[in-house]
Batch of 2 targets.
Target 1
Amino acid sequence: MGKHTLRVSELVICLSLFEIGSTTLFFMGSEAKQDAWLAMLIGALAGLILLILHLSIYRQEPNLDLFQLFRRYTGKYMGSLLNFMFVGYFAYETSRNVRDLGEVTLLTLLTRTPLWIVSLIAILVVANTVRYGYKVFFLICVILFPGMVVGYAIISILFPATGLLHLEFFLPILENGWMPVFKAAIPEIVSFPFGQVVLFLVFYPHARRAKNLPKAVITVYLLTALALTFLNQLIVLVMGHKLASFSTLPLLQSVQLIRLTEVFERTDALFILLFFLGLGIKMAAFFTGAVIGLERITGVSFKTWVFPMGAVIYGVSFLSPNYTHHIIVGRDITLNTSSPFFQIVLPLVLFIIMKIKRAPDNTA
Amino acid sequence: MLGQWFKKVFSQQKQQSQDIEKSKKEQNAQSINPSLPHTLLLLKDQFGQSPDFTVRTLSGQPADPSGLAVCYFEGLIDQKLLTSLFEGLIHGGSDNTQSKTNPNQIASRLLESLPSGHIQIIRTEDQLLTEILSGSAVIIMNNCPFSLAVMISGGARRSVEEPSSQTVVRGPKEGFTEDVTTNIALVRRKIRSPKLKFETHNIGQLTHTTVVIAYIQDVANPDVVQELTQRLQSIDTDSILESGYIEEFIQDSPLSPFPMMIDTERPDTVAGGLLDGQVAVLVDGTPFALIAPVTFFNFFQTPEDYYQRYDISTFLRCLRLVAFLVSLLLPSLYIALTTFQQEMIPTTLLISLTAQREGTPFPALVETLLMEITFEVIREAGIRMPRVIGPAISIVGALVIGQAAVEAGLVSGAIVIVVSFTAISNFVIPYFSMSSAIRLLRFALMFLAGFLGIFGILAGLIPLLAHLLSLKSFGVDYLMPYGPFFKSNMKDLVIRAPWWAMKTRPNVKSGGNRIRQAPHQYPKGTSNRLDNMKEPEQ
């Protein structure tokens, strides 16, 4: 793969869309009730610390991606093992998104189509995108970006315009003090969506040399976090936190309430497309990360890995017997166990090893 | 996988082509026999008893030491030029009896005295045949190891007319013809610069077609020119009849449905392309020239955009892109909405649609396919049928198939509107190759929509987007100014900026010299001379 072919703008646009990804499907921070926005902000700030950790790893070794770093700093065997675990983590995240997309489709657009067909088509489309290489994937993000921004902007404008917002749902602020807010934010919101930027350690080295890369990444990260907080709080303001926490697809349900003249009545089908694009981008990003990892471990070109990897992801997406189980595994179990391990522990360990190993170099 | 299979099939043919080349090399390079009767026999033998092959012997018998013969094909030469050639030959030949025996002197005198600008000395038999076949009159002298080829090609040709497939309201009305020299002249008349270069290639072992690469030095990217030349030279075939042959041999991504080169019969399009740093390929025998490298958006621009006001051009370009989307998506959206997402249709419209579809026997997908295929048949018939039957087709198409099909309860009325609007939108796209590509893709999307609704359409569009992004035409990304994004190209894309605001050429990647004109040319006048004009006295 060619080096330094990504522009910083392409990288940050992709990072932004990746963060939005499937986040808007869910109501984040439901434990914090009407203070979900505070939980989101706290989660985002904690995620920012993680992001800075990732960026400082990148700064020390700007030419090596995540897999090469582990290989170099933890030795051949340990490094390969950890890399395999990362590939597994990325692949599992992809498969979760495949299942999400399939279930959302069944709930909304194609109520009578079997899940395996929808998932199969989703994974085929994504695998096809990955097959072209990361460059094409990033360009797709650039092209879809205006559409996504306009789509979410329209949602944000239509809610107040049609009088659906109930600002009183904000109140009372901090009803039970800070504790529930922190509990909601850490580690759930940090792990999903903010901590997932660990994936971008694979992509930073492909960006063109630019001094403003960390700055651009952090700025875009903050803007995206604010936008996500805003969208998340819109759900609370439209539905109230009680309804929102029971709803399967709260934002979509809110959008269904929008009625504008006679023409724009059930526009939710159009907004589902926004979710699909977000999910697809997230899937493709994780999928790309996984196959690049396999390329680094085995030395075989990533194109060969796309098909077997796709098959594995497709299979894993059926692990949960039903959507509720899938959600519980995703939102309760993995967010508290595996995600912090890959997003926080391993990068932190890597950073410390790098500091130790590089220290003699600096003094010499 | 498909690509690999194609490669396998084609590599088998490579062996054969190498054999052809070997036998070709053995054939030629035999020099002309000095004996005139021998050469004439050879020519008669080669051309058989072709009625248009003419040999005219001057100065007595061919076996005479001063024997001289002129050979040509009747239809390939210009009669007037031939007459003046004979006048020159007779005057020059009977001038001096002393030097008659020395063929070299005769030849040098002829070279001086013949009334033609294009005389060539040829030494091999192969060259002799080629020259006669390409419309030269060849003067063969006895006891002389070489012959003279005088280029007097002419004969029946179409004159320069208005292009029939790419018309404009405002702008030059001349189009290319089948004759490549005329076409070169048409381009050169627009760009009178020594930097405009034409490079000739001869392709096709049987057809010997003249293929010309045109570019402007310093403006075109030399790498593109070199690559194009190389690809042209590597073509090994026996026949080139149209520029479409060349296009398929040299284009990037041959399995893509999208055209990778623009074909045009307008000299002003070619000139505009050359000035943008593109390279053109002119092929003898067809009025269609090729332009490369191109981007996707080039197919939605017409030369007229630059002759009209910029605001109306911008509007028209937006309109064309909308028409592109309609032409690609409208039938599949109709299928998806009526089959799966009825709730998105406003209630009153939905009621009327359902009422219409009540009596129709087929599902929306079958109905739409039926009408789309019917339309494609009518469209193809419109091109192929004899012109005299034209009105009959329009009556059959419009009345019988449109109205009667609805009244007979075969299809619903809405579908006729959808299909006809799609068809009309397809005609808005200026280049036929692009609109054909969309026609094909439309059917694929219709099937996806029929089985999976909006989800299917999205599942079709994303791979399409990925495919478009992966395409490159001679090193230039197909979706260039959008993906990857180039801000400076945006001035001539969907928006056509006024001329005084376009300082640089649009294609970042195709050109070397990017500055087109001086900056700050906003037309504000030079002085207030005109303000002081006197009011006319009553």
Note: The mean pLDDT of chain A is 88.
Target 2
Amino acid sequence: MTNKPESLYIHIPFCDHICKYCDFTKLFYFEKYEKEYLDSLITEIEHYHINRVKTLYFGGGTPTSLSDEGFERILSFATQYLEDDYEFTVEANVENLTESKLSIMKKCGVNRISIGVQSTNDKLLKEIGRNHSFEDVRRVVSLAKAQGFDNINIDLIYGFKHQSARQLKKDLKNFIELDIDHISIYSLIVEKGSIFYSQGVKEQSEGASRRFYEIILKTLRKNGYERYEISNFARNKKYSRHNMTYWKNREYYGCGLGASGFVSGNRYTNTKSLTEYNKHNFVKESEKVSNKDSLEYYLITNFRMEQGFSREEFKQKFGQDFAEMFKDKINKFLLSNLLVITPDRVKLNDDGLLLMDFVILKLI
Amino acid sequence: MHYDKKHIRNFSIIAHIDHGKSTLADRILELTETVSQREMKEQFLDSMDLERERGITIKLNAVTLKYHAKNGEDYLFNLIDTPGHVDFSYEVSRSLAACEGCLLVVDATQGVEAQTLANVYLAVDNNLEIVPVINKIDLPSAMPDMAKREIEERIGIPADNACLVSAKTGLNVGDVLEAVVNYIPAPLGDDNNPLQALIFDSYYDSYRGVIIMVRVKEGKVKVGDTIHLMAANKNYLVTEVGIRNPKEIKTDELCAGEVGYIAAQIKDIRDVHPGETVTLLDNPAKEALPGYRKMNPMVYCGLYPVDSKKYLDLKDALEKLTLNDASLVFEPETSQALGFGFRCGFLGLLHMDVVQERLEREYGLDLILTAPSVIYHVYKSDGTMLALDNPSKLPDLTTIKEIQEPYVKAQIMTPKEYVGAVMDLCQNRRGIYLNLEYFDDTRMIATYELPLAEIVYNFFDKLKSFTKGYASFDYEYSDYKVGNLSKMDILLNGDVIDALSIIVYKGSAYERGSVVVRKLKEIIPRQQFEVPVQAAINGKIIARADIKAVRKDVLAKCYGGDISRKKKLLEKQKEGKKRMKAIGSVEVPQEAFMTVLSIDED
């Protein structure tokens, strides 16, 4: 690919506290680490010689756990890469999305905020290691709105072992009342490396998880949210342009501790060791994506989208029409129950999306 | 290079698995400087990787060694190796028939085992002089006196002159060589008699054809002779004779008493059976050497490539294997479920395992094996008999008068405290009790007749686990008996899967049916719809379990764009699919085909 990536992800690994389900690269926030980390981060970003990007995303960890100075320093540094028509997202936690953080964001041109809410049940929030209450959520959302942020996402996690369908419905009702345009909903996955994993916490059963997902889909659709990706819902076409880069299998820069990126046909993952990172040994693993892998990546990503992918684009990339290439397997494994193949596009239907891994495993 | 008969010793080594036969052979090769240290791979005689890994000898080998004895004279030793497993007992008897004596290796920490016993009796039957060797005396737990006593009391041969050695360290191995000279008789035979040479092994060479290993009993053979195989009734022109040390060394002739190889442009290994007598066309022997028997496969299974495109590769590989293995037979067969493959016959389960592993390892094939089956004799109402090697081919019930199945006579030696458990196991496997006797103060031998079909699947594993590994087991084929038998079919999604059909004993059919469907339910991956697994006898469903449908199978969490990780997870799952065969729309893993033999929950 000769075109340079049009998206940039920047990872801020610090957190004020550690959530029990989290397995991402994170460190307890200590002021002494901040400056050196940001120095290294800037060096890493600069070495890519980025021209301009259309989407910029600060994720974590918790970007808002930085000091106001550090926060402003890194945000304003990154703005130099933004094109005119950009999307600039910052992830925030409820506890540290302060007025001063909000005004720094405003000043630096941030136009999308993603808030990790996870649940609206205070007891559950406590159990999963979150220090906020739903009252706090209401407060910061209106604060952000008051500052003029009109593109807000909140994250929800479902599928805790003892969570009832009633609790889930209550969460959804509360979310909808916040009157925001974007909701991301993930089922709890107890990943190695999380506190839950070490505590032996179990995920809910597959059947229950499916039931919960169906409740979510039905409720959000009824309230005007469009599912445009398996875990993402938007009103007023406020899709996350940045995340669509991933789901369309397009290239992006990924910078920061433990971040991953996709540049010049290479998928890479950065080191998770702060010491190594500060020695500027950024990339830990890198893989040149082969043709065969490229097909797998294409399906893994594009199938997540409600709209699937264009047959024309597929044919251009892989030299053969999708329906032709997989004719035997589609017939043999009765995948036509799960796939929708129109003259223009290929996508998974509602059942198919829930069995995406199953479908991909039959195909590859 | 020519030795008179007085200075030739032909012998083999008998030992239980792990008692140190191969290690002792290695030390002997070293001591006689037959194989230099540099060439010395551990356990030279077991030249296949597989043999080395499993510590067993599958294919026989013979080597000629030179030994300078303490009496100042030079001797020629022919060490003929024997396979150490019951599948190959006929071959053991043929290699013993090529010898005048044998070394009986007994582990000083274990004593005499059932398998040793069986082979010693073969040696006694062949009138061999037996030299006891007590091995592993370097171990702290060694009890050489106990081992000696056991040899005397249980086998009934004197052991006061037994060599006490450690093959591992080489301690006293020299004594063994002296004992060979002093106790094992020199071969008899007259070079001037008509040729009688016993074939005890053969191997294939792509330039010279089948090379046969022989022990010349009477007469002599040289290049240019036309040899006659008496049982096969075939003639061949000898192009080369020689000895192996273990590399081939050409000689002018092979004379009575000697062991060596003959190359005679023999194309097909199936013309050459162990036990066959070689004579000369011009001056034939009056009669063949005794003991020849044609070996028939005892266990059959279907072999199918996972990828149907590999059918010809599999055929090719099987053909190559049979060049060196006359006891492996195969013919094409077709299964509705599995497509094109082969029905293969083996001497026993170990043989089957070895062939499977060689096909997978040496030829890189992914295989589906159907459950091993014995050969049933199906007597039909019209008086004809069908030898059934594939359960799915059982004819219509109304045409069958009775079904007979093969039995083995099994001897199980066990410490007496486990005798109850052993007898329970044999009873559960439809064993017919024959005898129970004390072997010594602590051990007993139980003798049962057992249906071969009942021991093909995890009998040995069970026996070992019931006796904490102490029992040993040996069997010989006996005869066919009428059985109360029926075909059990397995249905997936309502369709009979021919490759999963087995013949079962009616008395335990219900129990087995429910175990099998439950196990299949566990190992067959879920589909997008519910798949019933049923067991049926004569079209009547006797057990059912449902493979639930996949409800949700998506790792939706994927922030930060770390898609590589997600792909790795998928790759891992994909690996597991490699050995699955799609039957209809259901993918069935390889192990499912063995699962039908499950008898209980573990």
Note: The CA atoms of residues 414 and 471 of chain B lie 4 Å apart.
